[in-house]
Structures are given as C-alpha cells and as structure tokens.
Amino acid sequence: MTASGPDRAIVAWIALMADSERIRAQAWTADGVRAAGWPAEGVLVANPHDFGDFTLAGDGAGGAFVAWGDPDDVDVRLQHISASGNPAPGWAAEGISLGAGYPGPLASDGQGGVLVARRLVYPDRRLAGLVVHRIDTQGQPAPGWPVPGPFFPRVWDAAFLVDPGHHVFVSTAEVDTTTYKPLGIVVRRLDESGVGDPSWPNKGVVLEEPRYVHGTWIFPDGLGGVYVEWEAPQYYQCDYYCPYDPGRSVARVLNDGSTQGAWSSAPKGTSSAPDGTGGVLVALQNHGRPGAIRLDSEGAVMPGWDPEGSRAMTEVVKSPGIMVTDDGRGGAFLAWWDLRGGDYHLYASRLDASGRLAEGWPETATVIGPRVQSRYLEGSLSVALASLSEEVAIAVWTEYPGPWGYITALRPGEPGPVADLAPIDRPVGFGVVEVRPNPAQNPIVAIVELPEAGPARLDLVDGAGRRLETHEFSFSQRARGSVRLDGEGKLPAGIYWLRLTQAGRTASRKVAVLH
C-alpha cells in the first residue's frame, strides 16, 4: 500500500487466478469511498507470462507507479496508473520496458516522473548490482539523466527520496556478490543529472557494517536531510514473540553528508515513520507490550514519551511486529497482529503528541480484524499502514476465512471505532506467494497457494536448473499454507528458485541465500 496525494491510499496485489497471474490495484479516498473510475475488482495493471516481484509507489497526485518482473521475458516493466485508474497519458497499456533484470524499489521524483531501480544478475544468477532509471511523465528517460542510469555494484536492496531541491537521496544495502555477506548501509546524494554530490564522501556515507542486512527505507527529516531505516536483527529487542520481523535500526544523515552521534544509539524497533515535525517515530515492544518512541531531530526523546516505548496497550501480546505512522498531530497510529491463545486478531491504537494513550482509546487497544477467524491466516500475518490527511490512517491486510481470500482495509477512527472500507475479493490461486525471509538463511519457508486439493511438490533449484531439494505435500482443500525447506545442509550463497508443481502446472519464485 502507498499514500498518493493528501487523501488517497492505493493498494496493489497479486491475483493468482486459475489461468494466469495478474497484478491489480485499487484506490480509496480518506472517507472510505472507492476512488472514481476504479472498478470494484481493481484495475488490471499487468498480466505477465510468469510473475516475479513487483513494487509500488504513489505519484503524489492520486495515481501510482508499478514495476514488475516477467521471468519468462527476463524483463522489468513499469506502468503509471493515473488518478482515474487508467494508464497515464503517453503510457501504453502494457507499460514500458526497462530492460533485463528484476524490479527494485521506485519513488516519485516530485515532478510527475519516477525513479525506479533494476537489479542485474550475472548469467550464473549471482548479484551484479543495481541500476537507477529516471522516467518522465510521458514514460521516456528523463532529460539530463544518464541512460540507462547510475549503476551501483554489490547492491541487494535500495530506497530513494527526492527532496524539494530535486536532490536524489539513495540508501543502499550492499553485499559481497560472492558470499552475500553484508557490507553495510550506504547513503548517497545525487543531483538532477544523477551525479554524486562532491561535498559528500566519494563512496557515500556508511552507516553500519552489520552481520546481516538487506532491507532499507528512507524518508525526509524536514530539514534537508533524511532518516534511513534498515533491518538489523542482531540488535532486535524482542521480549516475547517476534518470529517474522527481524527488527530495524534508524539513523539520520544531514544534508551535508554528516551524521549525528546521538542517532548511533537510537532504539531498534519493528518500523519507523516521520512524526510530521522533523522527528521520527519508532515502533517497538516495551517488555512485550506494543508501543512507540518519538525522537526529535537531534535524536533526543520527546518530553512525555517513555524511552523504552510509550505503551499503546497495557497487556503483553504475542506479536510478529508493530507498524507505526503519524497522526498529523505529533502522535502516532499503531497496528499489529496478536497471536495469543492461537487466535489471530489485528489491533490498532493511538498515542497523542505527549506519548500518552489518546483520549477515548481503550487500554486494551481496538480490534480491527479479521472479520472471520481462520487458520489460513498464518501465511498472511502482515499489515500495511499509511497516514493520510485529517488524522486518518489506513490499515490493510489479507485474510483467509476459507478457500477465498480478501484484501481488507479499515480506517482507525475517533476515538477507537473503525470505518470499514470495501474489501477486495482475491481468490486463492496457484503459486509461491512469498518466501520468508528473502534473502534467506536455512531454513527457507515458502508461502504457497493451491486452488485445489491434492498432492503437490516444491523443488529448490539452483541457477543451472539442478534440483537440490524436493518436498512433497498435500492440502485437504484449496488454500494457502507454508512449506519448509531445510536446504539439506548449508547452501552456498547465491540466487535460487522455488518451483511449485501440481497437476501439470508449475510456478516459480526467486530467493536469495546469504551467509
């Protein structure tokens, strides 16, 4: 999910239909009404031959950019959906081709265009690096930007941000291309021509050299610099139950390329977000209780906020992670799954600008989902949270009350009830939906969907097409579930494929293994 403009949220998903795999998108306004021109089933963004990954970003004007990979064509494609739900003027119905590789992150450039990354790999499937394209409003390479674009070797993941002065900030998670061991999080600043800022270090600002890192996010500090977030499980403070989210660190880089010492000891949490006033919100668990901390631009704890996390709920929870976003008043909305007692519940809460539970919100938080309890939810324990205008946050998740799944959104209201948004029907299809984690270390857990009951097989295949491990399994009905592969020992670092087979059909998904 992404916010686009002051009062719109856009959701994109993979529709694993019986005959093909499709990327669809839907838009809602802040009052819970489906945006004009967007059909109930969402707009069709792409119908690739064999789906790989996709990424999504708002264009700031009610539309969105979507990049996806088509493994059959070994091609990365990009589409711009306008606020009306149609391809933007100048964009073909099938989008544009960026070249061979795999889709990376993308972000609006603030001028109607987009920055989009394309991951490159060597013929033996080893990571080569990442190239950054800049595409204008008409779907053409942006004037002045190099073609295809700046190339960053050793980069597994990245994030972009364009500031009001049109500087391009790039945060990269870099790894050794042979061993896939992490090299660190590096931040660079480029000008409008894609050239590095000469006042910054030649190789960028290195924030950390962790044992394991691959995800990175970036958002503005409101003062010309940026906050950078990355996954850093070796620091994760998890008091009770955190099986999926590896934990995240956050740091600040000023516009001159310097860092502040106070940020080196910033708390490590499960997600971060700007607080809307130049500071940052960090979601974390305070001795097993969901909470958040608010830091000012100097990295100091804001008055009233608990340094260990102001609690959004008094009870100890069993949660895989907590999402946070600002409420437009210096406070925070939070959302999280709670697995206590084997039941699956999605909670929301709100803290005010002084770090206290917002007026009217219960100490036990507010249950916002799912609509129907289901054992199929185990493969979908994630929630997206986006902040819109007028103190509105939208929470989106997938739920499986039976063989059919739904993408559902709720808007936490005042002071705790929720406004229901129309769900999107999403039938269970055929494919490998997700790999956890990715990049992976043994074991590898694949979330798969089967549209019919019966035996199936999941193979782990290397870049040369050799089958390394096979796991045969069966579902009693069409459903989503998890399949575990141990890798039969320690796999060499590199790019592999998970290949799902049932009743003559096959589908695959890429996974990286690192040490």
Question: How would you characterize the overall build of this protein?
Answer:
Strands 28, 29, 30, 31 and 32 form a five-stranded antiparallel sheet that branches. A four-stranded antiparallel sheet has the order 1-2-3-4, with no helix packed on it. Strand 28 and strand 29 form a beta hairpin. About 3% of the residues have low confidence. It has two domains: 426 residues, Methylamine Dehydrogenase, Chain H, CATH 2.130.10; 82 residues, Immunoglobulin-like, CATH 2.60.40.4070. By secondary structure, the chain is an all-beta fold. 0% of the residues lie in helices and 48% in strands. The chain has no helices and 39 strands.
Unreliable segments of 5+ consecutive residues? 234-246
CATH topology of the largest domain: Methylamine Dehydrogenase, Chain H
Number of domain modules: 2
* CATH 2nd-level architecture of the largest domain: 7 Propeller
Quick one: biggest sheet? Answer: 5 strands, antiparallel
Helical content class: under 10%
Mind telling me the C-alpha Rg? 22 Å
Q: State the helix count.
A: 0
CA-CA gap between termini: 31 Å
Mean pLDDT: 79
What is the total tally of β strands?
39
Oligomerization status of the protein chains: single chain
Structural class label: mainly beta
CATH class of the largest domain: Mainly Beta
In terms of DSSP E residues, the strand content is over 45%
Cα shape: globular
